[in-house]
Design brief:
The structure is a homodimer of 317-residue chains. By secondary structure, chain A is α/β, with parallel strands linked by helices. Chain A has helices at residues 5-14, 28-43, 61-64, 91-95, 125-136, 142-155, 166-178, 184-193, 197-209, 225-231, 277-283, 301-316; strands at 18-21, 48-51, 76-80, 101-104, 115-118, 210-213, 218-223, 253-261, 264-271, 287-288, 292-298.
Chain lengths: 317, 317
């Protein structure tokens, strides 16, 4: 059932011992939303814990340092920024069919929860949580604001992408005005600029592995397990590499293929302007946003590429 | 003489046949400010022309396509985003001592004009011009808004850097709300994402040429004339390369050295957090902002580097 802010408020004010589930391969928005909501529940005197199937990388230490929460037997199951229970990883089996409240901004949300607060036009799940806290009249601590800013900045590509709403800028303006103790540029540097030497080397290889198809309208870059071993790079360092696939002026669709296990590729799609890559990913059982989506594809590298090129060719018609 | 908005309004409403000077090596802020102000003067029925010592690159076509303005004998000389007449290039001799109005946000502004509207806390000169147009009650056309957005986005690193004010976000929120015909993400893609193949290759070389000094607190990357010839890259492609010097987590100061002519290096400084690189650049006769500044240094590459390392060492103490 889809609900609005009033019902979400009633739910949150009356819940108890909540587990907050974030999605696997966690990013700034689900981590920010999880820890931001935890801060809000704490403000309401409600105990909560943030869980994720994968570990939070050190990039997010400034958020997660506050602690994911103590162990307790959960009575409330909340999911944030999780469009599909499949994305809960190992928590799908435990909580997948028990989610009472889901707060999300993905248009592809599967409506799997008892109550879903869905705002598909919101830049980020963190934007919804900020508005909800304001609606509820809850004091937003600096830590909470930092979490929510991080999510908005991450999902908007620091206010670069199409999905950046006027309202996202309004929230950022309000935060910059109200929280002089938050070093926003330091957060942005952490999210968008800092790289490990390994990552710099990986990026420097990018130009060698990218391949142009369909009159340069499509770029595919594949990173195989062999390549990862050879470069000695761990999979953390791949986060946020997909936008590199649409750097060339003529490119409309970019696909980053990462071999997860032999002949299984996680594909991250990006589009520059008009192609809806979420539609393409759905063909392969995936989904996401119009300009950023993903899917898993199996087969040899050549077979997989052939299928991808064909699907993009049709989308470009 | 420093002036406020009221006096700037009186000046603009009463001026005639204006030349608007932008700085050499033009960037999004001076181009946006120049063409944005031109649109405002047109709205007031005043003829104007935007001039620059260097050519505007094709990256800014969407701004400059409206035309820099016809030839006429100027009666009014305005400079935008120009901190020092030295930065006017070939126009210094012609107009350097005749500037009647300067609109600028550089704290290092030399106060060379008859009247200077200086707002050192503004994110960009475009932010000042937007506020001035609002103050004057002038209708801001879509083209003008696009120009001014571009300047704000450019100088703030798309809202990433420290200099991004709450007000910059407010303006972006207002623009996104009012101008549904502007494709902001396309502008951002043009400013921050699109690269030529040559630029991608250049960036891929970066990790090889960067050198770490002072316990990795300083990174210097030098691009010599030989290197440029070898890679067949023209100097356009270097714009915006300086931020790559502070990508590593521990780096506090980054310097990009570009050989302009044999043994003459244009040095672009960036700082990550606390060092004021404008202060360092002033030692070498340069200047700029606390976190982004520049200077020219002469000598062999080794001598130049030695001087730079020494200056940064002192600043880090």
């Amino acid at each position: 059932m889809y609900i609005g802010f009033s019902e979400a408020e009633v739910f949150l004010r009356n819940c108890k011992d909540a587990v907050i589930i974030t999605h696997q391969s966690p990013d700034g928005d689900c981590i920010g939303a999880g820890f931001g909501l935890k801060d809000i529940l704490t403000e309401l005197g409600i105990r909560s814990r943030v869980v994720c199937s994968d570990e939070f990388t050190s990039r997010y230490d400034f958020i997660t340092n506050s602690g994911a929460g103590e162990e307790f037997k959960p009575e409330t199951i909340i999911a944030v920024d999780v469009a599909d229970t499949k994305l809960m990883g190992k928590y799908q089996e435990i909580y997948g069919d028990k989610v009472q409240l889901c707060i999300d901004h993905h248009v592809s949300n599967r409506n799997y929860a008892e109550k879903t607060l869905l705002r598909p036009k919101a830049t980020a799940s963190c934007e919804i949580i900020y508005d909800l806290a304001k609606f509820m009249g809850i004091n937003i601590s600096s830590h909470c604001a930092m979490c929510l800013y991080t999510g908005i900045a991450t999902d908007s590509g620091c206010f670069r992408y199409d999905c950046t709403t006027s309202h996202a800028h309004e929230i950022a303006a309000e935060m910059k005005h109200c929280y002089s103790d938050i070093n926003f540029s330091k957060i942005n540097r952490r999210m968008f600029e800092i790289k490990s030497k390994g990552r710099m080397i990986l990026e420097s290889k990018f130009v060698d592995i990218m391949e142009e198809y369909l009159d340069n309208k499509l770029v595919i870059a594949a990173i195989t397990l062999d390549m990862m071993n050879e470069l000695g790079i761990n999979s953390d360092e791949f986060e946020g590499l997909a936008p590199m696939t649409i750097q060339l002026e003529d490119t409309e669709v970019g696909i980053l293929m990462k071999e997860r296990e032999p002949n299984v590729y996680k594909c991250s799609f990006r589009s520059a302007d008009f192609v809806n890559v979420s539609d393409i990913c759905r063909i392969f059982g995936g989904g996401g946003h119009a300009k950023a989506a993903g899917c898993i594809i199996e087969g040899t590298l050549d077979e997989a590429k052939k299928q991808l090129v064909e699907a993009v060719r049709k989308a470009l018609l």
